[in-house]
Structure formats: C-alpha cells, structure tokens
Amino acid sequence: MNVLLDVKMFLSFLVTGNLVTVMLIGAYLWHHKDDDTLNTFFYAKCIQTIAWIIAIFRGGPFDFAAVSLANSVLFIGYSIESIALLKLLRYYTKSIRTLYLWITILNILGFHLILFFNNQFNYRVAFASIGIVALLVVPVLRMIRGKHLSLLMRLMGYLYLFIILILLIRALVALLINHSSEPGPITVLLAYGFVFITINLTMILGGTGFILLLKEMTDKELVRLANYDDLTKTLNRRAFFEQTKQCLDQYAKKKVKVSFLLFDVDRFKCINDTHGHDIGDRVLRDLSKRIYRQIGPDNLFSRFGGDEFAILMPGLDEEQSTASAERIRAEIAGAEIHLPDKPLNYTISIGLLTLLPDRYTDIENLYISCDNALYGAKKSGKNSVYRGQYQDEY
C-alpha cells in the first residue's frame, strides 16, 4: 500500500472523529453559550480538527506548507485545550496565560527550525510529540495531585497521563528508527499508529469526559448557590437548619451538649443610612471573614438575613461557649473598616444558650429561645454576650 495513502487513511479517521466530537460539543454548547470554559474547549477542538484537515493535503507541491501549517495549528489547538482544562480546575491565571503563550511560540519555532534545517520525519514526529506533552503536563499534574478533587477529575487526569506516556513512547520510537525525510511503511505504522491511538483517546476524553467534568462542576456550583449566602460565604438559613437538625440528632445520641449563638450588628441600619448599602455590605463581609477565623471546622455559621447571623457549636458546654462568644465579640469590637474620611468601627450583640439535645429538641424553639437571649444582650447595652435558656414550648 502507498505510504502517503496510509498516512491519509490515519488522518481521515482523526478528522472524522474530531468532527463528530466538535458536533457533539457544539450541540451541548447550544444551550450553554455563556460558558467560557466550554467555549474555550470547543475552540480548541475546532482548531485541532482544522489542523488534521490541513495535514491530509501533505504530499505533492503543498507538502512543505501543509506540514508547517498543520503542526503550527495543532500546537495552538492543544495549547487552548490545556487552557480549557486549567479553567475547569480554576487554575488559569495571567502568569499561566503567559506561560502557555511562550510554550506555544517555542513549539512552533522549534518545529520550523527542524523543518528548515534538518527536515527528517523522525525528528519532526519526536519534537511534535514532546511539544504536545509540554502543553498537557501542567493540567495533568493538577488533576492528579490537586486537593479536594473528585474521583472523576482524578480519573481524567490519569487518562491524560496515559496519553502523555503514549506520546513519549512515540517520540522515543521516532528517534530510534531510521532517519529519513520520507517515512517508510514501518515508520508510518509506528509513528502514526501511536498518534492514531492517542488522538482517539483524546477525542473520547474531550467529547464526553470534559462535558461530564463541566457538568459535575456546574452541579457543585448549583449546590453552593442553593446552600450558601453569596455575600458572606456563610450557610443560608435553610441549609443551616437542615445541617443543625442532623447535628442535634447526632449529639443527642452521643449525649453531648451543643451551644447556639445568635447575633446581629449593633446600629446596622444607622450604618446603612449614613454610609450607604455598599459600606453595609463591606461590614457584613468583614464580619464573616473575622468570625470564620475564630470558629472551628465543625461549627455551622449562617447568615439568616440582613445583619442577623447564627453559629452552632457542637460539643461546647457553657464555659467553653461563653469563652468562644466573648472571643468573637472582642474580635469584632476591634474591627475597623477603612473609609476615605475616617475609619468605621462596629460591634455585635450575641444571644447564647447551651443545651443537651434529645429527640424532642425543636429547631424553631431553639431559634426563638436564642432570639430572646439576643434581645437581652441589646437591652444590656449592646456589644455584649447574654446567656439564655432553651424553652421547649412557645
């Protein structure tokens, strides 16, 4: 069989597979047009498809131009695919963008140095393989070694790692076989056979795996939006009550006390009226950041609405919870919001109670009891902690 025909057969398979992948991603993208990460990945696959189409025209009078343009476009396509993966990992920064710009430029320049001064098929294959590895290695390492990643993300990382290994083997094989500017049948089988397997794996990963990962990330974001307050990054009231119910059941079985804090910002309406709602929002963000530094990882912290917040402290008795509440109050009392004219200080009043939960403990009664304690803190002069008692019925 003609060597060039063998090459074009491999390339035709790659073009067909890429076109199918592009169409599938395009169909999904039709309903997610504003997704920047998905758009980036779609552009990468389109560019890679164009590169393989150009490569089909190698041979004859256009051989040099086709090899030059196809590989240049392919480097750009893989660079954009890596950027899409890094965006998915939320690891794409200005420095990463600069890094990938330089890697892509160096790949294209290096390939053309070989093409102009030592145009041997083996060297071209080896350099192109290593160049693609250089583009993929950063996102692959992040997918494998990153913290708090899902099983699907790690699986994708190892599959991409397998692709990197195939590309490195392809480069090694290309360097070991006979040097020639025109490949023979064995060279085609080894070099293009490897790339055929590799690119087809990439298409499977790109078409299905990436969309699955994107959907997983979208689902996590929807859960976050459903459970957290966007301004303060605290639990919203519904999520707080759900998790508090589970926690009360758990500690009732353990027969261990829990403490509940309810607090708001003193004279918050005056802050809004005097300085505007933007400054009021800054106060709430500052408050939540400071309190997160004061509470443990097992504490539940929630914004109920406006300037009202709650904290559930599992396992803390009266003495421990009083110390924690006073520490929080003192931290906020020392807070300062920097304004153009003068600093803004603010304080909070805290209602506090401790109880040994049982199966009859009612969350609404818990909230009302603590709200009464908060009222006591306000009556005692604000910027204070007032301990109340849990009442079974209201």
From TrEMBL:
Domain GGDEF: 256-390
Cited PROSITE patterns: GGDEF
SUPFAM superfamilies according to UniProt: Nucleotide cyclase
Stored InterPro entries: Diguanylate_Cyclase, GGDEF_dom, Nucleotide_cyclase, Rev_trsase/Diguanyl_cyclase
Residue stretches spanning the membrane: 12-30, 42-58, 64-86, 98-117, 123-144, 156-177, 189-214
Keywords, alphabetical: Membrane, Transmembrane, Transmembrane helix
Gene Ontology molecular-function annotations: diguanylate cyclase activity
Pfam families associated with the record: GGDEF
Name this protein carries in UniProt: GGDEF domain-containing protein
Source organism: Sporolactobacillus laevolacticus DSM 442
